[in-house]
Amino acid sequence: MSMRSAMQQHGIRAQQREQTRQSLLREGRRLFSGRGYGAVSLAEIVQAAGVTKGALYHHFTGKTDLFRAVLEELQQEVGQRVAAAADTHDDPWTQLTAGCQEFLTATTDPDIQRVMLVDGPAVLGWSQWRAMDEAASARHLADALSFLMDEGIVAPQPVAPLVHLLSGAMNEAALWLASSSDPEDLNHTKAALGQLLQALRIG
């Protein structure tokens, strides 16, 4: 086999491995979000993805590791939605409020909510879930608040307590909204969040 053929074969195998990984993530996400982590078996995931258990173990150490990857993917998607909502505005204060409002909207999607907020802490443990949540969103919130403090829009204060208070409030609100049957509750919660954030503003 020539070097060129060997490189082509290597490229094809790498592409096939990535396709297998994406298929596992896609089916894992569909099953975890639809029925919950505890109700889904490893055998069911590999069957839905059309791969063997050996193929799954090539990419993940097991069901929990696959779930962690699905959660990380969802957190990134929510983060992208928040950033996109913020980026439609030029004013830094409006960027913060629009981003926080979009977080509420995104995480009240029942599929996202189940993986991110219900099963996430239960499956991975609070400390690991909190670390992932902090890496995915809290850091950006901290950066936004720090910038607003530097600009004199929010009163100077320790950032970490404020970030944890706001993150906790938004996560709890998203959990409550996901179980709500009144479509107006999202608008009411967004309004309440807006008032909560407005109380921080001095400039």
Automatic annotation (TrEMBL):
Residues 41-60 bind DNA. Residues 18-78 form the HTH tetR-type domain. Residues 1-20 are annotated as: Disordered. It comes from the Bacteria. The keyword Cell cycle does not apply. Keywords: DNA-binding, Transcription, Transcription regulation. The keyword Iron does not apply. Gene3D superfamilies: Tetracycline Repressor, domain 2. GO terms for molecular function: DNA binding. This is AcrR family transcriptional regulator. It comes from Streptomyces zagrosensis.
